[in-house]
Amino acid sequence: MRSTVFLLTVVSGLAWAVPAAAAAGDPIDLGNGVLLDPIFAARLRYETVDQANLPASADALTFRARAGIELKTSGVSILAEGEGTLALVDNYNDTIASNGVEPFPIVADPENLELNRFQVSYLKDGTGVTLGRQRIILDNARFVGNVGWRQNEQTYDAVRGVAKLGKVSLDATYSVSQRTVFGKDSPNSHYNGDFVFLGGGLDLPVVDIKAFAYLLDYDTRLAFSSQTYGFLATAGFDIPAVGKLSGQLSYASQSDYGANPVSYRADYINAQAGLSVSHFTLTAGYEELGSDHGVAAVQTPLATLHAFNGWADLFLTTPANGLRDYYATVGAAFGVSFLPGLKADLTYHQFDSDFGGLDYGSEWDASVGFKLGPVALLAKYANYQADQFAVDTEKVWLQAEAAF
Questions:
Q1: Among 400, 395, 379, which residue's Cα sits nearest to residue 107?
Q2: Closest CA to 389 of 320, 303, 291, 305
Q3: pLDDT tens digits along 96-138
Q4: Among 34, 165, 340, 386, which lies 20 to 30 A Cα-Cα from 310?
Q5: How far is CA 70 from CA 156, 192, 214, 286, 396, in A?
Q6: Rounded CA gap, 54 and 103, in Å?
Q7: pLDDT at 13
């Protein structure tokens, strides 16, 4: 309770102490066509986790700050950014084994201080290349993302090229290291290997289509070495006097790759439809991470996993029997003048296995967010009810964030 009061007190201070101009983050003109763009982002979060098989609940109050600069001139830019996370209340398992065995559930936000990004880029008219430690988010981050929900961001040591040719877009990346969210003191701070991300997109009047290939060859994390080939199609159009209809369809085939000791092939499927009417949005979908007869299942080790299959994060690694996620969301955006950007969402998930006929469990997720000045405020809740997988898990988050 004291942690919650402390968080709300700091949030109020941030909301009224940070000047509105700070949110703009306007670049500074150094003359001769050179711009200096400061980078700053801060996030304060309280997270509590109650897990049925552990004797104590986790309480984590963490503060994350990123700061850096970017120099830009004639399409060339150089960016450097540091990132630090501080645990103000540390009654949680931060995944660092050297801290000792703890009776608390995991909150994967260890204290950390590191170089988050350091890159050199050239980009002109949508075509260019970036070299160095960088943030990579591809499409909806289902296969490759930055794990932006956690305090320590996931980045990549990579070279990435993009090209825009009319309605056609091309994207190719070669990476040698996945810099994880677990921090520099963790034995899992990074995973090296040969990672190739290829994508080609076509922007049509109603639908956008993207074909992709992800080739992951880990040096040590062999069970996650895989090759995935698929497509993602998204569409949206207005229905006169009703609202907007949107849809998403994705399919991929994944199999073993590199030194993976297990031979398997499994399918990934996602189908989703949404209808927006006035201030409300209704979304329903089905996602399948298939299993090869219980031997192995589709894995997405580079994804922003918190955004998929429930906020309680019970399925960060897909069970060998696979996963079927049936979900529905009701969202609302409210036009309240003194609470700009006020939004609320409620989601229900039903989780089953793809192989073996298991009823894993179900989950309710809810969130509400708005802004006070330059500070974005968010409250989230997740409640997983176990049946034949994992244990009952309940999580609550309160968060304040500002960036420019």
A1: 395
A2: 320
A3: 987 767 899 999 999 999 999 999 999 999 999 999 999 999 9
A4: 340
A5: 18, 27, 30, 41, 35
A6: 6
A7: 43
Which of these, 58, 57, 79, 75, lies nearest to 67 by C-alpha position? Answer: 79
Q: What is the pLDDT of residue 25?
A: 66
CA 95 to chain centre: 19
338: Cβ contacts below 8 Å, ≥ 6 apart: none
- Separation between Cα atoms, residue 319 and residue 253, nearest integer Å: 17
CA torsion, ordered 135, 106, 188, 192, to nearest 10 deg = -40
Instruction: For residue range 252-294, list pLDDT tens digits in order.
Output: 999 999 999 999 999 999 999 999 999 999 999 999 999 999 9
Residue 394 CA to residue 176 CA, distance in Å, equals: 36
Segments making up each domain of the chain, as ranges: 2-403
In the chain, the amino acid numbered 161 is: G
H/E element, 31? strand 28-31
Cβ-Cβ contacts under 8 Å for 119 (sequence gap 6 or more)? 78, 79, 130, 131, 132, 133, 134
pTM greater than the 0.90 cutoff: yes
What is the CATH number assigned to the segment(s) 2-403?
Answer: 2.40.160.10
